[in-house]
Design goal:
The chain is an alpha+beta fold. It is built from 5 helices and 7 strands; from the N terminus they run E-E-E-E-H-H-H-E-H-E-H-E. A hairpin with a 2-residue loop joins strand 2 and strand 3. Helix 1 packs parallel to helix 3.
Length: 166
Amino acid sequence: MRSTARTSLRVGVGYDVHRFSPSRRLMLGGIELPHSQGLEGYSDADVLLHAICDAILGAAALGDIGQHFPAGDARYRGVASIVLLREVVTLTRQRGYRVGNVDAVVVAEAPRISPHVDAMRATIAEALGTTVEDVSVKATTNERLGFVGRGEGIAAQAVVLLELVS
């Protein structure tokens, strides 16, 4: 028989993908990257923050980003995804959890992500209310395979550990 006590550690996984759009600026990890194209989406389409949001929401058993911030809702049109991440953190804290750590990977052929990783980590850590040491952002290519490999968009995946506060 399962105990009714709350689990002190919870793990969540998030994944997101957006295609490139020539008429947008590129937001990734809460910062703007210099690139000829941005990502298509209802918000600022920050694929990395969306994956992190979904990982946190999943770990807290709170659904997904689309349930909380639906496309088509005028409040979220063009919204900065860092705002959404902060709201997800607030929801998680209301459930009694805090983010222990985040491990995320960005999959893109271009632009180069590594020069911007430190700034992304700092921005994400601030939004999560944690330290930079608790946020990992890595980058890889798709070896020219599939839509990401053809340079049509960017994908991101994140794993999050939540810790019970109370």
